[in-house]
Amino acid sequence: MSLGWVAVPTRVQLVWAQGRGGAIGRDNTIPWRVPEDMARFKELTIGYPVIMGRKTWDSLPARFRPLPGRTNIVITRSDDWSADGAMRARTVDEALVLAGPEPVSVIGGAEVYRAMIGRATDLRVTEIEVDVPAADAFAPEIGDEWEAVYVGDRLTSTTGVRYRFVNYRRAIA
Ligand SMILES: NC(=O)c1ccc[n+]([C@@H]2O[C@H](COP(=O)([O-])OP(=O)(O)OC[C@H]3O[C@@H](n4cnc5c(N)ncnc54)[C@H](OP(=O)(O)O)[C@@H]3O)[C@@H](O)[C@H]2O)c1
């Protein structure tokens, strides 16, 4: 085992979209359609590694898997999991080491956001004005250590859904 320094990302952004009450998913899908948010997701993540949980990987439609133009790192506790186009990590730390020194995006789901928010430097949240009855996956709590550095205007999607973008940065103590 190497005892040298290992380069891990200095910027770790969590990227998610949440409905009312912090809902982010139901039955392993995202329960709304906001193409403008998908475009922003691509803009925020393209060219850099992305880290996701195995269930989020499973939830991606086959034609988006792996997410193109990004190193796809999937966290799983399973030793024998593998998928074309994905790197497997067994822990949060292993995922960050695989990502290397570049900025990295953590793209869900709920369990992985909870496991990684303590390592994050930035949160990129899309607030979607929809109720999600029977939601079963929720965004992590945004505590006092986070400062909103950008609050976008409320916009209306081509699908009619209202939304806005909010960016947070870890507050300097
Ligand atoms: N709205 C959004 O922005 C957004 C974004 C992404 C996902 N989602 C939604 O979120 C839901 C999925 O979230 P989820 O919480 O159920 O699943 P998830 O976080 O995507 O994946 C959970 C799995 O990841 C692995 N894992 C998680 N934490 C780990 C850790 N600390 N160490 C090792 N492995 C770990 C485990 O895989 P194994 O079971 O293989 O061991 C675990 O079962 C879906 O509904 C999806 O559509 C929403």
From TrEMBL:
Q: Does the keyword Oxidoreductase apply?
A: yes
Physiological role: Key enzyme in folate metabolism. Catalyzes an essential reaction for de novo glycine and purine synthesis, and for DNA precursor synthesis.
Mark the transmembrane ranges: none
**Which pathway does the database say it acts in?**
Cofactor biosynthesis; tetrahydrofolate biosynthesis; 5,6,7,8-tetrahydrofolate from 7,8-dihydrofolate: step 1/1
Database matches in PANTHER family: DIHYDROFOLATE REDUCTASE
DHFR domain boundaries? 11-170
Q: According to the lineage, what is the superkingdom? A: Bacteria
Which catalytic reaction applies to this protein?
A: (6S)-5,6,7,8-tetrahydrofolate + NADP(+) = 7,8-dihydrofolate + NADPH + H(+)
* Name this polypeptide is given: Dihydrofolate reductase
Keywords tagged on the record:
NADP, One-carbon metabolism, Oxidoreductase
Protein family = Belongs to the dihydrofolate reductase family.
What EC numbers are recorded for this enzyme?
1.5.1.3
Q: Which Pfam families does this UniProt record tie to the protein?
A: DHFR_1
